[in-house]
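TASK: fixed-backbone design
INPUT:
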């Protein structure tokens, strides 16, 4: 912005005034009320505030031949008012164009997986290139970020299937590890129960106590039923063994004599 040649100029806090005297740079004026020589000096004000410049989306072919759309945003500011006026005609347009070219070149040299997962490295590479180029224009690039990456529909579906398969693989691995741990714990519990049979009964009683809290169902435990049947069988066998140990007396048979009178009974 060129200030009319009135001999007086006001420079704001975020600006610097570059004074040209008869076409020659005569210095930079700091913020405040500044006096100039009428009809001789002219001042161009330069804003030192950070500029947010969107880099429009553009189609880029990655190193693995995938066409994607990439949009970015750049943050820069002028640090040398004289260079930003003398060295280049339109610094904003120049930064925009070089930012688009740099984004396309850096992304085009990268693989798709790197673009999607390692954007921080790409951002740093783009920033370093821009900062090195724009330094001669008196511009400092604060930050460059890739903000939007558009993938083809076919690639999105393929990546979704890949992610789904990866999750299924991890789920199966976790389930297998859980089964292995569970089998080991069950084996240890079986060894403990084998040494202490009463532990199984205590566990059954604990489960019964947990179920009884709800009081909304009837549960039959086969373990107690089979134990009761075994005890009944053992009881019957003991009764039979006891009965076999006592021999009952033989029933006497009556014998008649030749006269027809009954004789004294004779045991068989």
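OUTPUT:
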């Amino acid at each position: 912005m060129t200030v009319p040649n009135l001999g007086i100029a006001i420079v704001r806090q975020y600006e610097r005034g570059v004074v040209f005297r008869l076409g020659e740079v005569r210095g930079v004026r700091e913020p405040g009320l500044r006096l100039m020589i009428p009809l001789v000096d002219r001042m161009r004000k330069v804003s030192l505030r950070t500029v947010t410049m969107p880099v429009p989306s553009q189609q880029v072919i990655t190193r693995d031949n995938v066409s994607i759309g990439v949009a970015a945003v750049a943050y820069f500011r002028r640090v040398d008012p004289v260079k930003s006026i003398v060295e280049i005609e339109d610094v904003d347009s120049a930064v925009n164009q070089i930012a688009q070219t740099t984004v396309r070149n850096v992304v085009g040299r990268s693989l798709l997986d790197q673009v999607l997962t390692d954007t921080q490295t790409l951002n740093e590479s783009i920033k370093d290139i821009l900062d090195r180029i724009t330094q001669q224009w008196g511009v400092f690039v604060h930050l460059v970020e890739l903000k939007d990456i558009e993938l083809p529909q076919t690639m999105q579906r393929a990546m979704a299937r890949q992610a789904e398969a990866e999750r299924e693989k991890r789920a199966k691995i976790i389930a297998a590890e859980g089964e292995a741990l569970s089998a080991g714990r069950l084996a240890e519990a079986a060894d403990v129960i084998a040494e202490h049979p009463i532990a199984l009964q205590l566990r059954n009683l604990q489960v019964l106590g947990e179920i009884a809290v709800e009081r909304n169902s009837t549960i039959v435990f086969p373990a107690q039923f089979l134990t009761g049947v075994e005890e009944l069988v053992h009881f019957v066998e003991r009764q039979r063994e006891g009965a076999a140990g006592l021999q009952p007396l033989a029933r006497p048979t009556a014998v008649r004599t030749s006269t027809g009178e009954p004789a004294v009974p004779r045991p068989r």
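COMMENT: Residues 247-251 have pLDDT under 50 and may be disordered.
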